[in-house]
Amino acid sequence: MAVTNMKPRARKAAAQYNDYEHTGPVTLAGAFMRSGWQPVHRSQDLPSGRAKPLRIMSEGFTLFRGESGKAQVLAHRCAHRGTQLSAAWVEGDTLRCLYHGWRYDATGQCVEMPAEGAAYAARVKIASYPTREHLGLIFVYFGEGEPPAFPHIPAFVGEGHVETYVEYFPCNFFQCWENSFDEYHVHFTHRTGGMHPRYPELPEMTFTETDYGILRRAETKDGRVKLSPFLMPNVLRTTVPSPNAMQGHGPSERDTYLIKVPVDDFNHVFFITQQVRVREGEEAAYREKHAQYLEMRAKARPPHELGLEILAGKITLMDVVDHPYLAIIEDVVAQGGQGAIANRSEELLGRSDVGILAMRKIWSREMRAIAEGKPAKQWQPLLKMPE
Ligand code: FES
Ligand SMILES: [Fe+2]
Fold this sequence. Notes:
Layout: H1 8-15, H2 28-33, E1 37-42, E2 50-56, E3 59-65, E4 71-75, E5 89-91, E6 94-96, E7 103-104, E8 110-112, H3 118-122, E9 128-129, E10 131-134, E11 137-141, E12 161-169, H4 173-179, H5 186-189, E13 204-209, E14 213-219, E15 225-231, E16 235-241, E17 253-264, E18 267-276, H6 283-299, H7 303-311, H8 326-336, H9 354-371
Antiparallel strand pairs: 1-11, 2-3, 3-4, 4-9, 5-6, 6-7, 7-8, 10-11, 12-18, 13-14, 14-15, 15-16, 16-17, 17-18
Helix pairs in contact: 7-8
The structure holds FE2/S2 (inorganic) cluster (FES) and fe (ii) ion.
FE2/S2 (inorganic) cluster binds next to loops.
């Protein structure tokens, strides 16, 4: 008889609150995601005086940095006849629409209409969203009412500098958020890097709900313990290997935040922000190697394109083992390989998936509370790393 993971009745009961994948403006998962601060862009990629279109959780916005240096997010379109505000002129800390010159301040208030009167301008306001910058990223609050406390994730402690990376994944964000709970995949997905033994024992893992999310405790047979905090709805703090073995300087492991944010239901961006602790006296050598690495990455083809070619059978992983960010290609293949949106109704879960189940249970509970208009849990910032 075929193995199934759910009795029909249980499947029906769970089906009500298990749409974790759709995060558009009128969805339950979207409401949960909008309850927290979300990173949308790397700070260093938005110079003063620049406006850009932004697409997050299937909605369009305009991101710009005013001449004072403050990053702002406004509605996607001008209130007049709806052209895109990303093409607007940045004037001071305001945006002047390219089409007929209506000008909006950072609160979305229209402050000038060249062909109309001031009274008309005073009556027009477009949407604006609270923004903050932290750890090299621009965070935005897209939810209702007052935003939660910021920062919700503490800065790294001690000496070191912060590096941020942004990767594009051509699949739904939730299957990649599940991957955050999936320590075991590294032994197989990333085995080309030689970083991991082949068939390791599964560590003893416990997942405990906390006031910020979930604390994972993993203990291996030799007594090593690793604690990883997961912040609801979508932030993991952990240590990961350096993306670049060729750097040769600095630590091989980096203290890291991993955050996955939907562009729409079939694509997401993966924000990686890390502390790099370079040994004393090795800063200059590190900077040189790092510049070489960034140059290599700039010349290399984007990991998601290569991942899709591998999935299409045009090339294999062994054709790209020299890519400067091989680990991301491997992850795109494994996670994108689950489909544009993974089909959870047909999966067969095992011991290695206990964390994923613990996380889904919390997501379902919170989505149900949102659906029923009951108070959802007020997640607290992670104040310090658990010990
Ligand atoms: S469409 Fe923006 S001013 Fe006319
Ligand atoms: Fe991975």
